[in-house]
Amino acid sequence: MIISFIVAFYFQFMYEGDLLAYEKLVIGVLITTAGWIAVTFLTQPEKDDVLSKFYQQVRPHNAGWKKWLQKSGNIAIAHDRVSSLGLDISAMIIGCLMVYGYLFGLGYWIYGDIFRTLIAFGIAFASTFILLKIWPRLSFS
Question: Residue 65 is part of which domain span?
Fold first, then answer.
């Protein structure tokens, strides 16, 4: 966060060159990403008890955690996941469609655009129905 703030501050208030806005953005993203990667490799990893507490509270999907789960002896935790990552991501995308469908549907309704209101609410209702159908297959425990 500090790196991206410094880069943005530099380009906004100190830089006097002739780079276009999108060029500044790309350079800023590259510098920030390089900084994040450097900080990741130069700092100590979190302790196992911190990771275990995080895993117990957040319950992220096992993808990316299997090596740590096996190393830490939390094998039982690794096998209790009944849903798949694809289903979880699908539910997230459908939930976003649902929320934005209702949001835009209400906005179109307020402005009197009935056709777009019906399309947006149709997407929202369909997304709600699909999400309710797949909800029991998701794992939250």
Answer: 47-81
